Amino acid sequence: MHEDFPNGSVWLVGAGPGDPELLTRKAARLIGMADVVLYDALVGEGVLDLARVGAQLVYVGKRSGRHSRDQGSIDQLIVEAALTGARVVRLKGGDPSIFGRSAEEMTACRAAGVRVQVCPGITAASAAAASLGVSLTLRGMARRLTFVTAHARAGEALAMDWAALADPGATLAVYMGKAAAPEVATQLIGAGMAPDTPVAVIENASLPNETTVTTRLDLLPLAAKGLRGDGPALLLIGQAVGQDVPATAQAQPIATAVPAR
Ligand code: SAH
């Protein structure tokens, strides 16, 4: 018996970047125990297959720019479901604590006297780096890793400390950054970042329809125009992103080092 999921309580569960195999074992167990699962567009289909037969699956779709429920009504749904005595899982893409509005959901639960716990998940930046075969940090080259969101309210410019973000010794992961890619590039170069800084745009990381584009900062506005998908996409910017060595190129020196017989 697991006593960490009593009736009338809530778990905010990180569903990872999409591939169901990138769920934690704990997430899989909690999903399987839930009476009600509230999920949104970023949660991959295979993940929901883990819910038990008879569990209520509730779509609370949230994707920027599309019709979606507001955060307040999602908070209310979570609380109401728990107050009926159900075991509630609120599934969130990636890690709940990274651009996931988990604080609002926790506050709403606590205000209603509902017990709420968090199960962490693999964030999109980790999945993107894995797909690219690069490291987010790199000894002597990328000592700092910065997660920012480039989501601005309609009609508003991005309010960011560009000078701080233009650090050549950092890797910058820009969530919700596809639409803002041209502005991000212009502002970072304006703040002194080298125009040839490597950039990768990863869409649908860890999913079968994943696409990656690698380019340089000054060419990012052009590359962004060519991106036609409407899946979630992340920008990775920094010297570490350009350090990928294709497996075949890596194998070459070893092969040639074998003396000819
Ligand atoms: N909590 C999530 C982030 C939510 S914000 C996490 O930790 O990953 C939503 C943004 O996350 C998207 O706009 C995109 O920038 C990024 N994202 C989420 N899933 C992604 C995926 N599979 N591939 C690329 N980017 C993704």
UniProtKB/TrEMBL annotation:
Residues 10-218 form the Tetrapyrrole methylase domain. GO terms for biological process: methylation. Pathway: Porphyrin-containing compound metabolism; siroheme biosynthesis; precorrin-2 from uroporphyrinogen III: step 1/1. This is uroporphyrinogen-III C-methyltransferase. One of its GO terms (molecular function) is uroporphyrin-III C-methyltransferase activity. Keywords: Methyltransferase, Porphyrin biosynthesis, S-adenosyl-L-methionine, Transferase. Its EC number is 2.1.1.107. Pfam families: TP_methylase (PF00590). It is an enzyme of class 2 (transferase). Transmembrane segments: none annotated.
